[in-house]
Amino acid sequence: MTASDSPPAARSRRDPAARSPWRQPLALVGAAFIVLWVLVALLAPLLAPQGPLDQLSPKLLEPSAEHLFGTDELGRDVLSRVIYGSQVSLPLAFLLVAFAAVIGSVVGGIAGFFGGWVDGALMRLADLVFAFPGIILAMAVAAALGPQLRNAVLAVVVVSWPSYARLVRGLVLSARNSEYVVASRLLGSSAVRTMLVDLRPNIAGPVLVMAALDVGNAVLLLSGLSFLGLGAQPPAAEWGAMVAAGAANFDRWWVGLFPGLCILTVVLAFNFVGDTLRDALDPRTARAIRG
Question: Tens digits of per-residue pLDDT, 78-135?
């Protein structure tokens, strides 16, 4: 029997690419959209036909060959503002997810490793944040600090870190009594070294999966706060604020539709990639995918 005559299952076991979870259609679609949006954000000055604040055209023009996405209530090109909006939404989403992951991982790691009253105090703080719906608490924090995009980012970090704290705490609790951790402690390793060297590799994968899923949620929360007037302020080109402008001009469908579609594609893309990362890093689902 030749290699071409081998059963599909046998070929899958021999060919790493054939059993890669990244060959899943949704994973490819999500990764393609993420790469596309990153390129759009990096190349925005080259791709946008106008500046995001240029008022060079008549107001509320329908999509046409001259203005593919039409113009808004001030005569600004919607396509240009959508493109420049990616420079606001995507970097801030990555930044706040990174902050939330670091803060939550540190808090959860300390709580799980030391236990006792330290664990109780830190987890009660996380429970206090969980007691409120995320968007409501984010609105309250942003309103208290003032309607600015910086404050909206801080508000989303405040509501996001407890999820990482709970995840990391559970992982540390399940691993801190493992033989390799006990051996490391008996050999004189400090608590910090044990957490960074021995425990960190076991928690990095799940935290990465949660972070990938959270980027889409972060874009959605930031856009929601801007839509409510608590995030980006006019005349900033930000997707949530643009959707709010579309709601004010509801009969001009193109003003809010295209930035809304941008939010949708980013959220779906990161959800697809996050699900694929979870499947790839979980041995049970990885075996099911690879067959």
Answer: 999 999 999 999 999 999 999 999 999 999 988 888 888 998 999 999 999 988 888 8
Q: Which of 267, 265, 261, 274 is nearest to 217 (CA)?
A: 267
pTM over 0.85: no
